[in-house]
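Write out the bound-state structure for 3IX.
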Amino acid sequence: MSGTSAALTPPADAQTPVRHPDAPAPGELLGAHYEQCFGCGGGQPHGLHLEARAADGVALTAEFTVQPAHQGAPGLAHGGVLAAALDEALGSLNWLLRTIAVTGRLETDFLLPVPVGTTLHLEAEVTAVAGRKIYAVATGRVGAPDGPVAVRADALFVEVKVDHFVEHGRPAEIQAVMDDPDQLRRVRALEVNP
Ligand SMILES: CCCCC/C=C\C/C=C\C/C=C\C/C=C\CCCC(=O)SCCNC(=O)CCNC(=O)[C@H](O)C(C)(C)COP(=O)(O)OP(=O)(O)OC[C@H]1O[C@@H](n2cnc3c(N)ncnc32)[C@H](O)[C@@H]1OP(=O)(O)O
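---
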């Protein structure tokens, strides 16, 4: 059984999402938004190393292979890790809107257990935008892009400015980003109207 709370139902005056003209082309790898991100960064040994690719519209596909470090029960992925994979795929939609947004609400259905070694094939899509609120859905299929759906999520992201991170992040990590031209370029690429 699954359902969606009222907070995840777009209001009647919500807009159809618009892919930003400078968004990566369909098929292009999106890359990590932050090297130390648990979801997409290359600098986290036990991270998900999720690789997302732009699709048509305001949508993407992504893959993540469940590692032994991601177990909850013996030989099975932890549910929180699967939720993190969905969250990361949904968060990567920022690249297509060229907006910085953070997860406000994430509702997840766990439909099938996911064994270690499985590659989860994710799809995420923005469904509506209302002011700063971005509504999106994601699914994760096991084994193949057309495999059975193991997990799915409905989410609300809320647009923020870079200041959100500068204000709330631990100063050492924020300074490290500011000192790294490559990292700074990634942040700026997300932010159309700083
Ligand atoms: C130069 C150095 C820069 C360093 C930065 C480096 C890299 C950064 C680059 C990119 C990173 C971007 C994103 C990360 C990407 C991927 C990771 C996966 C995604 C995540 O993992 S991200 C982490 C988890 N995430 C959070 O850490 C959020 C914590 N949270 C907050 O920071 C606030 O809570 C916030 C901002 C969400 C809202 O706060 P706020 O004060 O700005 O706005 P407000 O409360 O007014 O909400 C506005 C409207 O959203 C509705 N609304 C809000 N929350 C709702 C909820 N939960 N349910 C239903 N509706 C909700 C309200 O009802 C209102 O609706 P209405 O306008 O209709 O009244």
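---
Residues 7, 33-34, 39, 87-88, 91, 94, 100, 102-105, 131-133, 156, 158, 160, 162, 165-166, 174, 177-178, 187, 190 surround 3IX (CB under 6 Å).
The longest helix spans residues 79-91.
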